[in-house]
């Protein structure tokens, strides 16, 4: 596997979580005992990526602070002999080589990805969105990188959803390939109505992209919501008969959606009940709680 960099867009305003995100980035909201963005960084590292660029906006300094060392805290934990917490604190500082660049104005996901051009250079790269947490036991990104290495195509993560929910996602028009779980993507529709959706294959927040996407994003006009949409650039890649095309990896593993308040709470419950240090206490309590509803 060639060396690959990862880009994590984290410049959104997080309006769905106000007032919690008035002063705290939504990416720093805790999921059990780690901020959501740390799960995403750990996923990239587990896939062999050590160079990570985080796209931030104003009032997002807490993200860079989290991945920096805190010597006074580390010394205090060392003096107390609290080696477990010390190890967890130091882990976030030693995960990877993490860089930050500002997006400036929130002009959409496509614009955020374009801000990574100077750092990424003329190489393929991964994009990971923080709203989708992928369980570490289901290595989706590793499979996507391998698929890109094999085909040269842009690779997007797809997941089957209830047709009535497809309007919440980008939907893919897809054709099976000879490789099980991998489809050729002929078109993408951003948040279609159920009757207009080409399939119930929803685009979730993982991409492995060739550097050619930057040139397309440079000339992409603002689309839905007045923003530069990454979906529009992928549509151009899919429609170009001379280009590398777009393929999708259909993911059937564990995904935790932290994009809205109810799903965020569900993600915390799911992850906490699976943990060795919390599950034994939480599972029987949840059964009693549910029985009383």
Automatic annotation (TrEMBL):
EC class: transferase
Plastid recorded as keyword: no
Keyword Phosphoprotein found: no
Domain Nucleotidyl transferase: 5-272
Record CDD domains: UGPase_prokaryotic
Coiled-coil blocks: none
Gene3D superfamilies in the record: Spore Coat Polysaccharide Biosynthesis Protein SpsA, Chain A
Keywords for this protein: Nucleotidyltransferase, Transferase
Superkingdom: Bacteria
Catalytic activity, EC: 2.7.7.9
Reaction it catalyzes: alpha-D-glucose 1-phosphate + UTP + H(+) = UDP-alpha-D-glucose + diphosphate
GO molecular function: UTP:glucose-1-phosphate uridylyltransferase activity
Family note: Belongs to the UDPGP type 2 family.
Name of the protein in question: UTP--glucose-1-phosphate uridylyltransferase
Native source organism of the sequence: Microbacterium commune
Gene from which the chain derives: galU
């Amino acid at each position: 596997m060639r060396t690959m960099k990862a880009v994590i867009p984290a410049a959104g305003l997080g309006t769905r979580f106000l007032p919690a995100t008035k002063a705290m980035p939504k990416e720093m909201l805790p999921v059990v005992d780690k901020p959501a963005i740390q799960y995403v960084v750990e996923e990239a590292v587990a896939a062999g990526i050590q160079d990570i660029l985080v796209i931030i906006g104003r009032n997002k300094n807490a993200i860079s602070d989290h991945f920096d060392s805190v010597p006074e805290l580390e010394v205090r934990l060392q003096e107390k002999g609290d080696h477990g917490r010390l190890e967890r604190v130091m882990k976030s500082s030693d995960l990877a080589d993490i860089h930050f660049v500002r997006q400036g104005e929130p002009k959409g996901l496509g614009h955020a990805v374009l801000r990574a051009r100077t750092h990424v250079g003329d190489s393929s790269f991964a994009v990971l969105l923080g709203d989708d947490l992928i369980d570490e036991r289901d290595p989706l990104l590793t499979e996507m990188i391998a698929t890109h290495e094999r085909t040269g195509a842009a690779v997007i993560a797809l997941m089957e959803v209830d047709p009535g929910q497809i309007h919440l996602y980008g939907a893919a028009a897809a054709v099976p390939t000879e490789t099980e779980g991998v489809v050729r993507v002929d078109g993408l529709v951003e948040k279609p109505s159920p009757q207009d959706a080409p399939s119930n294959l929803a685009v979730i927040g993982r991409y492995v992209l060739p550097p050619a996407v930057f040139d397309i994003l440079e000339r992409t006009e603002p689309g839905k919501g007045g923003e530069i949409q990454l979906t529009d650039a992928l549509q151009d890649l899919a429609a170009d008969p001379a280009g590398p095309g777009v393929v999708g990896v259909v993911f059937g593993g564990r995904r935790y959606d932290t994009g809205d308040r109810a799903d965020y709470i569900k993600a915390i419950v799911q992850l906490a009940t699976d943990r060795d240090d919390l599950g034994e206490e939480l599972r029987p309590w949840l059964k009693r709680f549910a029985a009383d509803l």
